[in-house]
Design goal:
Radius of gyration: 21 Å
Distance between the termini: 41 Å
Helix content: 25-40%
Strand order of the largest sheet: 5-4-13-14-15-12-16
Structural class: alpha/beta
Bound molecules: flavin-adenine dinucleotide
Number of strands: 18
Largest sheet: 7 strands, mixed
Length: 407
C-alpha cells in the first residue's frame, strides 16, 4: 500500500484531485479545516470546459441532473437597463461549438455530488475538522500538522486550501492576496419572492460605474441567486448591517430601479472582500505543491475560478500518475501545463473587471465595442477557454528557473 497523498482543503479543487487520484489507484487523505465537508449556500456558474473534467471523473450526469442551463448570459447596462451584449448559451450554435452546456448550479449540490463520489471510493479518506497549520518536507515523505495538534504523514502534500492558503504562506511566503477595493454580498432566495422585473431564465450581469449585480436561477427555477459587488467607499464595522445597507445605497445610487429592487432582497449578514494575486510560474517545492485558488486566485469576471481548480485537479492527478511517485517532476509538469491558461484567466478577468465597472466615455467606448460583436465573434472570443485545456504534454512550455517566479 502506498503512503496516501495528503490534500489540504476539501473544496472543489481538493475533491476533484482526490477523486482523480483515487481513480488512478493512489490513496488520498483530504484534510478539511471546517467542522464538516460542505459549501456555502450560493450558486456557481460553469462554462462548458468543466465537462471535459467532469466526464472523465464520471460525475457529469449527476451534475447535469442538479444544474440549470441558462438561455443566455447577458450583460446589461446598469444605468439604462439596456442589453449590451449576450452569449447565446442556450442556442444550438453554442452547443454545437462547445459540445457541452453552460450551467449554473447550487454549490452545495455540486459539492455533494463530488463528496458522494469520494465516499464511494475506498482509496479516499475524508478528514473534517483538520485545519492544516504547517508541514515539513522530509525528503522521502511529508508530515502535516493540524490546529488540534494531530499530525499526518503522506507521500506528498497538495495545498488546495483556497485564496487564503496557509500552505502557500509557508511554501512561498509571498504575502496576502491583493484586495481590489470591492466587496461582494451573495444570497439565494425563493423564486416566488422575487418581485423585481428581471429575466429569470438567464445569467444577467448588470455592469455600472463601480458596481455590478449578477443573477440567475438555481434548482430548476426554485431559487434565485444574486451577487452584488461594489467598490467600497466607507469603513463599516464587520457585521454592522445598517452600515452595510447605507454603503450599498450609496454605491448603487445611480443604478437602474430594477437593480435597487434586487438589492432589497440581499441578506446583508455576511460579505466578502474581492481580490486576486499576480500570476506566478511555479507553485511547488519538492513534495509540496498548490492548486486552485491557493495557486492562482482570480477575480470573478469570467466565472472561472472554480472551473480552473477543477481542471487543475484532473491535470495534477494525471501528471502524478505518469510520474509514478516523482512528485517534484509531477508538480513541475503540472505548472508547465497550467500556468499560462490560469494566468490568462486572471489577467483577462482583471481587464473585464475594469470594463464592467467603467464610467464616462470609457464606458461608452466599451459598450460600443461589445455591441459591434456578432454572435460568432462572441463564441470565438471564448473558444480558448470553453474548448477545454491542453492535456499534460500538449502545448506544454518549458518553464524558466524558479527565480523567475515573480516576473
Ligand atoms: C462572489 C464570487 C463568485 C464566484 N463565482 C464563480 C463562478 O460562478 N464560477 C467559478 O468557476 N468560480 C467562481 N468563483 C470562484 C470560486 O469560488 C473559487 O475559485 C473556487 O471556490 C476555488 O476552489 P478551491 O477548491 O481552490 O478553493 P476553495 O473553494 O476556497 O476551497 C478551499 C477549501 O479549503 C479549506 N481550507 C482552508 N484553509 C484550510 C486549511 N488550512 N486546512 C484545511 N482546509 C482548509 C476551506 O474550508 C475550503 O473547504 C466565485 C468567487 C466569488 C468570491
Amino acid at each position: 500500500m502506498k503512503e496516501p497523498i495528503l490534500i489540504a482543503g476539501g473544496g472543489l479543487g481538493g475533491l476533484t484531485t482526490a477523486l482523480a487520484l483515487a481513480q488512478r489507484g493512489w490513496p488520498v487523505r483530504v484534510l478539511e479545516g471546517a467542522p464538516e465537508f460542505g459549501a456555502l449556500g450560493y450558486g456557481i456558474q460553469f462554462g462548458p470546459n468543466v465537462f471535459h473534467v467532469l466526464d472523465r471523473i464520471g460525475v457529469s450526469a449527476a451534475v447535469i441532473e442538479k444544474a440549470d442551463s441558462p438561455a443566455a448570459v447577458l450583460m446589461i447596462d446598469a444605468l439604462t437597463g439596456e442589453e449590451v451584449t449576450r452569449v447565446p448559451t442556450g442556442g444550438p450554435e453554442f452547443r454545437e461549438r462547445f459540445r457541452y452546456p453552460y450551467i449554473v448550479i447550487h454549490r452545495v449540490d455540486l459539492q455533494n455530488v463530488m463528496l458522494d463520489a469520494c465516499r464511494r471510493d475506498p482509496l479516499v479518506t475524508l478528514e473534517a475538522d483538520a485545519l492544516v497549520t504547517g508541514f515539513a518536507d522530509q525528503g522521502d515523505w511529508v508530515t502535516v500538522t493540524t490546529q488540534d495538534g494531530r499530525s499526518f504523514e503522506g507521500a506528498a502534500l497538495i495545498g488546495a486550501d483556497g485564496i487564503r492558503s496557509r500552505t502557500r504562506a509557508q511554501l512561498l511566503g509571498d504575502g496576502d492576496p491583493l484586495p481590489n477595493g470591492f466587496m461582494a454580498f451573495r444570497s439565494s432566495v425563493p423564486m416566488g419572492e422575487v418581485t423585481a422585473e428581471v429575466q429569470r431564465d438567464v445569467v444577467a450581469l448588470w455592469g455600472g460605474p463601480g458596481f455590478h449585480i449578477v443573477h440567475y436561477p438555481l434548482r430548476h427555477g426554485l431559487l434565485f441567486n444574486i451577487a452584488a459587488v461594489f467598490r467600497r467607499s466607507a469603513h463599516s464595522e464587520r457585521g454592522d448591517v445598517a452600515a452595510y445597507r447605507a454603503e450599498l445605497e450609496h454605491a448603487y445610487r445611480d443604478a437602474h430601479p430594477t437593480m435597487k429592487a434586487l438589492l432589497a432582497m440581499l441578506d446583508l449578514n455576511r460579505r466578502q472582500a474581492v481580490g486576486d494575486r499576480d500570476p506566478i510560474r511555479h507553485w511547488h517545492k519538492g513534495r509540496v505543491g498548490l492548486l486552485g485558488d491557493a495557486a492562482h486566485p482570480t477575480l470573478q469576471s469570467l466565472a472561472q475560478g472554480a472551473c480552473m481548480a477543477i481542471e487543475d485537479g484532473l491535470c495534477l492527478a494525471e501528471v502524478i500518475d505518469t510520474a509514478g511517485g516523482d512528485f517534484d517532476q509531477a508538480f513541475r509538469r503540472f505548472a508547465a501545463a497550467r500556468h499560462l491558461r490560469t494566468a490568462r484567466v486572471t489577467l483577462e478577468s482583471r481587464y473585464l473587471w475594469d470594463l464592467y465597472h467603467a464610467d464616462g466615455i470609457t464606458r461608452d467606448v466599451h459598450h460600443q465595442m461589445l455591441r459591434e460583436r456578432s454572435e460568432a465573434d462572441v463564441l470565438q472570443c471564448l473558444a480558448w477557454l470553453y474548448d477545454g485545456f491542453p492535456r499534460p504534454g500538449e502545448g506544454e512550455r518549458s518553464l524558466p528557473d524558479a527565480r523567475e517566479n515573480l516576473r
